[in-house]
C-alpha cells in the first residue's frame, strides 16, 4: 500500500509535533511486535531507522520516485525498494513520471530522463554494473540509479538500500560499480536425498520431492539475499553428483527453481556426473572422444536448455576421490572438459572443471598433484571452460598458502573456489569470519608477471586478459531458520558475494557493512563486533593448526582434533602424512630437499617460501620440517612458539566471550543468547583442540608445557579415544 | 518496553484526532515492514487487530495489569502477554499492584486479590485448569485469570490471547477450563541422525550435535506453540528407538531441551529401546524378569532423573515390526511394561506401552492382533502404565473404524494415539484437516457400558474412572520454516492440542479458531476456508480409499496408489491382503464368515458393523466382501458407487482450488501462492489415485467406467510402473 499518500491525507489536519510523535510511536511499536528473532532476515532487516535525524533526512531526500522498466527484474527491484522504504523509512516515495522525481531509476533505454542525465562514457563497459549519483539542479536534489541492464538496476537498488541501512549520506553520491568477476557462483554440495555434504546448517534448501509443483517462499528470499550481494549463479547439486539430476524429472525441478531465481539475475547450474551417459543414457562408455557419448551430451544439453533457457552450465568433479572421469578412458581432463564445452557452446553455457584432483597411484606430495595434472594442459581448454581451483593446494584448511596453479596457467581462465561452509573451521559452532581468509588469498602475490601479480588479478582475468572469469563459494546455507547455523556464519555468505563483486574491498569494510545491516549501527557495538570478527579466523588457526600445520582434524567427519590419525585408505588421508612430527621436529618439507612443491610457485614466491629467514611463520610448517629446538623470529623455540599459539587461540576465544557479553542490550536477546551459547561451545572445543594437539606433539618433542600454562584437563589417551555419533556433514 | 507509559507521556501535548491518526498509522506501518510471510509464526501472529472498534474496546478494557507470580512459568506467561498486547493492541497495560487493575492474573496463593475474588468451590479440582472471569464492581470492569497452578495461569493467559485474536467480547467472561486428559503428548519419530520417520516437513527440530550447549531460539517457539494449545509433553525420539538415546551424552542433550520446555509446562519423555541393557548396558539379556536387568533399568532411570528432575517417562514399541521386547524372553507385554514402570514409579514417571503389535507367526487378520495380545492382559499392568492404542486397528488410514481395544480393557487406562503427520494422507502436499478425523474417532460409540460409551469417555478415563489418562499425536513438525510443510498442516498440530485438552470441542469450532488466528477474521474468508477444511479429509478418503478400503498405498514409502502391491515380506504388508478384490467383488470379510474381527467389538457395535443393512457405507469394505453388482443404499451398484467416490474426490479438490482462488487479497500473497501451488499438486495426485485405483479394480470387476466420467489419462501398466526416488519419510 502507498503509505506516503495516507501520511499526506492524514497530515492535513495535524501539527508537526503530532507527526514526530507519531513517528517515534511507530518506531517503538514496530520493534515490539516481532516474533522471536531467528535470524531468518539475514542482513536484509528493513526495520525503521533508529537515528531520527538520519531518518528525517532520508525522508526528505526520497519523496518521489520515477522507476522505469517492466521486466521481471524491474518488477522485483520495485518490490524490493518498496518494502525497504516501508520498513526503513515507514513511508514510500510517491510514484511519479516526472523528470524531477527525487529518485530516478532505470536504464538509458527505458528512461529518457536517465538517458539525458547520464553520459554514454559513464555507461561504457558497465556490463551488469550501475551508477548511483546525486545531481543538484536549481537547489533541487536528485538521486539516480542507472544501469545498462535491468540486472544492473537491481544491483543499484540494493546498493542504495545498503547505503541507507548503513546510514550513509545520499547527498553527494558518485558511485560507479562494475563487477570485477563475471560468474559469481554458489556451489551447493546438496544431495538428492536432502543431505548436504559438509553441511552444518540443517539439510538442503531444495525440496526435491515437492518440486517442481511447490516453490516455497524461502526460495525467493534465497534469491533476494544472493542478488543483494551480487551473486549471479548457483550450482544446485553436489559435485559428487548423482546422474539422476540430469534426468527429465529432476531437470524440471531445477527449472522450477530457475524460474524463481531468474528475476533476481541468478542462473542455475548443475554438477554433471561424468559417467551419466552410461548410468542414465544406456551407453556402454562415457569416453569423451566417443561420437555416441558426444551426441548424448549434446542432446542432453539441448534438452536442458529447452527447460531452462538461461541454464548456466556444468560443474564437474572428475577423476577425483573416486568420481568417474575422462582418465578412465585414457583421456585428459581437457578432453573431458572440452567435450562438455562443445555441447554447451551453442547455448553460451560454460564448464567449470575442478582442479581438485589427486592421483590415486603416483604417491607424490598431495599438494603437488593438481598442478602436476593441470599445468601441462594450459591452453588446451575450450574458450567456454573455466578451471576451478581451490584457494589452497590441499583442502580448505584454516590457513593455506595460495594454490600454485594461480599464475601458472596464463592461457586458461582460473576460477577461484572458496569454502564458506566450515568443514575445517569448527562447523557452525565456531565464530569464523572468513572475509579475512578470502582477502589473504586474493591479495597474495603470485609474482607470475613480476611483483604485484596477485591472485585477484588472476581470477579477475586482469593479469592475462581473460574475458571469462569466475569465483565459487561452497555454500554454508541449509534448512536452519537462520540459514547458516551460526548467526555469524551469515557474514561469510555476505562477504563472499561482496568480494566476488569487488575483490578490492577490505575485510574490515565488508565486516562493518554486514554488522550494521545485521545487528546495529551503534558505533561502539560495531567496533567490538568487528574486532571479534577480524580476529576470529586467526584465533581458529591458533588453536587448530598454527604455524602452517594442516589437515590434522579427526578422520572423515573432521570434527575435532585428530593429529594421531594414521592408517587410512591412503597416506594423504592421514594426519601424520601432513605434520610429519618426529623426535627431531615437525612439518612437511616441501623444499628441494623434500617434495619440492615449492618449485611449483614462480621463482620469487618460491624463494620467499624456501628461505627460512624470510618465510612468514604462518606458513613455516607447511613448507619446512623444523627442529623442536630451532629458534624462530620471536626468539622462542619452535616448541614454545607452537604451544604459545595453541594457548593464545583459547585465550582469544575467552576474549571474544567477554567482548560479546558487553553486547547485551545492544542487540536482540535471542541472537545474543544464541551467540553466547555458541561461543561457550567454541571455548570448550578450542581447549579440546589445544590440549589434544599439545599433548600429542609433546609425545614427539618430549618437551614440557611451560609451567605458566594451565595443564591439559585429560591425558592424550582420553582425547584419542573420544568417539562421536551422527556427526553432521557426512553420511552416517 | 512499556509502551503505555510512552503513549501517556506523549499524549499530554496532543489531541485525540492525532492519537487515532497515530494509531491508524501505526497499524499501517506495522503490516508494511514484514519480511516475506513464511508461516513461521503459526497461529501466534500478534499483529495489530484490524477491527478498530474492537481494538479500542480491548484497549479500554485492558489498561492496567496486576500479574502476580515469579516462577519461571509466571515469567514466560508475563513475557507472552506483553508481546501479545504489544502486537495485538500496540500498547501494554500499565503494571500495577492495585487490586482494582483491569486485568488480574495469578493464583490464590500468590495473589490476595484473586484469593478474595475466587471462591474455593470454583477452584475445586481445577488441576492445571484456569478461570477467566469478568467482574463488575461499581461500574468498574475487571478481568481475572486465575489458576491453582502457574501452569494453569499460563494456559489462562493463552486463552485470553485466543479470545482477542478471535475478536471475542471480554465483557462477560465466565470461563472455567479443566483439561479432560492428563497427559497430552507429541510423539516425535525423530532419529538421532536428524531424519524423521514418516516426516514430511524437513528434518528433526533437534540439533543433537549442537546440544546440549546450543539451544536455538526455535526450541522456545516450539514450546510456546505447544503450551498455547495445552500440549504438556513431548517424546523426543523415534519409537523405533536407538539405545544411544539413553546414554549420558544424549541424556544431557535431552536435559537441555527439557530446560527450555520446562517453563512452558512441557515434560520431556524418551522412547526406550527394550534391548538397551544389552546394547549400552553390557548385559547378556534384556529379560524383564532378570534381576540384573531390573537393576540396570532402575539405575538408568535414577540417572535420567538426576539430569531431568521432571522427566515424564518412557514410550515403548516392543515386539512389533522387528523391535525387541519381552516376548523375546517368553514374557508378556505386561511383564515388560511393569518392569519399566517399577523403575519409574519412585519418580512418578509413567510408561506409555504401545499396543501397535502384530504377531509375526500367527497369520490371523492383522486388524485383530493388538486385541488378541492385549485384551487378556487387562488389569495386569502397574498403576503408572498407559497402553497406547492407535485410533484404528490397522495403521493410521484415511479412515478406520475405532480400535476394538477401546472399551475392551476397562481395568487399564488406554492412551489414544493419533497420527498428525500425513503418512497415509498425502504427505505435506495434500490439504487435510484432521480435526474431523480426531472427532469422528473420539465420538465413536464403543457401547462398552451401553449406548453413549464413546471412545472419548474411555480416553478421558470417565468410563472406567481412571485418573491416569493420556493422548498422543505423532508429530508433523520438522525443520521447514513453516514447521509442518503445508500451511494447513499447522491446523492438525493445533487441533490435536485443543481436542486433547477438550475432546468435546467440535472440529468446526477448532477450525474456526485456527483460521482466525492463522489467516484472517474476515467472516467471508473464514466461511470459505472452513468449508475447505471440514471437507478436506473426506475428499482424500474419496480419492484414496472410499467405502472402507484401506492400506492400498504404494509399498514402503506409501507415496501414491499401490492397490496392486503383493509379494511383500508378509501378507499383511501387501495391498491385496486388505482389499481382497476378485472377480466377484471387493472388501475384507471380517464378519463371522471371515476373520470375525467384528467379534472384538462389544455386541451392539458389532451388530451394526455386521449388518449390511445398517453398516455405514464408509466402513463397508472394511468389514465385508461385497459383490461388484450388489446395490448399496444409494441405489448404485458397489462398482458404480466406488467409481463415483473416486471421481467425486478429484472434483472436490478442484472445488477447493476455486474456493482458494477467491482468497486472493484476503490473506498474504506468500501463503496464498504456496497453498495454491500445493492444491495444484494435490489435484494432480488425486487424479493419479483415482485413475490408478479405478483401472486396477476394473481389472477385477470387468465393468465399465460410466461414460459421463473423463477417461483415465494412462493405462494401468503406466501407473504400476511409476518409480520414485528419495521419497521423504523413509531411509532412502
Automatic annotation (TrEMBL), chains A, B:
Q: What is the native source organism of this protein?
A: Pedobacter duraquae
One Pfam annotation, family name?
Glyco_hydro_67N
Q: What is its EC number?
A: 3.2.1.131
Q: Which residues form the active site?
A: 321 (proton donor), 395 (proton acceptor), 423 (proton acceptor)
Q: What class of enzyme is it?
A: hydrolase
Reactions accelerated catalytically = Hydrolysis of (1->2)-alpha-D-(4-O-methyl)glucuronosyl links in the main chain of hardwood xylans
Keyword Secreted (UniProt)? no
One cellular component term from this protein's GO annotations in UniProt: extracellular region
Q: Which residues form the Glycosyl hydrolase family 67 catalytic domain?
A: 164-483
Q: Please report the name of this protein according to its UniProt entry.
A: Xylan alpha-1,2-glucuronidase
Q: Which residues form the Glycosyl hydrolase family 67 C-terminal domain?
A: 484-708
Kindly list the GO molecular function terms attached to this UniProt entry: alpha-glucuronidase activity; xylan alpha-1,2-glucuronosidase activity
Q: Which residues form the Alpha glucuronidase N-terminal domain?
A: 42-160
For this UniProt record, the keywords arranged alphabetically read as follows:
Carbohydrate metabolism, Glycosidase, Hydrolase, Polysaccharide degradation, Xylan degradation
Q: How does it assemble?
A: Homodimer.
Q: Which domain of life is it from?
A: Bacteria
- Matching InterPro entries: A-glucoronidase_C_sf, GH, Glyco_hydro_67_aGlcAse, Glyco_hydro_67_aGlcAse_N, Glyco_hydro_67_C, Glyco_hydro_67_cat, Hex-like_dom2
Q: Which family does it belong to?
A: Belongs to the glycosyl hydrolase 67 family.
GO terms classed as biological process: glucuronoxylan catabolic process
